Amino acid sequence: MKILLVCMEYDYGDRSRGRSYEYYNFFESLKSTGYDVELFDYMEELRRLGKAAMNDALLDRVTAMKPDVAIFSLYTDQLTPEAVDKVRDHTQTLCFFHDDTWRVDFSRFWAPHFHYFTSPDFESKRKYERLGMHHSLHMPFGVNEVRYKPLDLEKKYDVSFVGAWHPYREWLIKRLEKAGISVYVAGYRWPNGIVAHEEMVKIFNESRINLNLSNSTSWDVRFLASSPRALLNRLRSKKSVEQLKARHFEINACRAFQLSYYVDGLERCYRLGEEMAIYLDPDDLVEKVRYYLDDDALRNRMAGAAYERTMSEHTYAKRFARVFSEMGQPQNFKSV
């Protein structure tokens, strides 16, 4: 089975930020599990050719390669609907909408231009069918278990967080530090900066507690009163809905303990309180960190259970196998 993956090879199209999520998790997972996959990096081609020529180049690639499926991961307006429609005339098309819980207008605009599209929302099929769209497929984030794995390293950090800077995340971390809890932080726009993928996996393995902090804007009055920037961010941000994200699966795939914000659907993936821990509000976050830091055996037991669940249910090999089956495509994975 031949697949053309239409996505950015680098994170947000920026080489300095390293390879993209789609490259590590879609391209590498499909390659390693037996599919003939080629990548069309529309951001690099856009820089090289310009928008119109890049869209023409995409169609040329499709007609030359003749893939069984073209899989898209969109960013903003790099691709044109006309080009995508022409691709659809030559091969089956699938688009990933991983942020459709808050990029609602964007997803609804693009969905009719593909044979199938995905959503991580457990209620997505019902929601889209009410809009007359009957070609949605439920596909949560997952994990490439080759990239995210246990490393059997000594614990170096009590608490860590890896992820992009956000004012609400910064506020939560400062609350922990004021409570006497040291947090190692890395990621885009933090002082420690972006870490390489391999270093991020090491941090997960070396941390007693890995925080998974929301970047949806909060209405907590303490946060809003903390600075003018906090209030301004809340008023400007469109991202006000919590979402099940990749990090929920990536930390667990490292057999590392995770303390996460709650999001609807998380309990359908893991047993909360048995396989991973959640906090309900900023005060609960402080208390939960203290509670779990005091119990090594409990953390290790929960991390082990989350790892087993992740390997049995949440790898991208399994995600793609199910989606391709629903699309009527053959199943030729080496290991599912």
Report on this model:
This is Spore protein YkvP/CgeB glycosyl transferase-like domain-containing protein. It comes from Pandoraea terrigena. InterPro entries: YkvP/CgeB_Glyco_trans-like (IPR055259). Residues 169-323 form the Spore protein YkvP/CgeB glycosyl transferase-like domain. This protein has 336 residues and is α/β, with parallel strands linked by helices. The protein folds into two domains: 2-142 and 315-327, Rossmann fold, CATH 3.40.50.2000; 157-313, Rossmann fold (3-Layer(aba) Sandwich). Helices cover 42% and strands 15% of the residues. The protein is built from 14 helices and eleven strands. The protein has a six-stranded parallel beta sheet, sandwiched between helices. A five-stranded parallel beta sheet has the order 8-7-9-10-11, sandwiched between helices. Strand 7, helix 7 (167-178) and strand 8 (183-186) form a beta-alpha-beta unit. Helix 2 (42-49) crosses helix 3 and helix 3 runs parallel beside helix 4 (81-88). It starts with a strand and ends in a 9-residue tail after the last helix. The model has no long low-confidence stretch (mean pLDDT 91).
List key phrases describing it.
336 residues; alpha/beta; Rossmann fold; 2 domains; 5-stranded parallel β-sheet; Spore protein YkvP/CgeB glycosyl transferase-like domain-containing protein; YkvP/CgeB_Glyco_trans-like
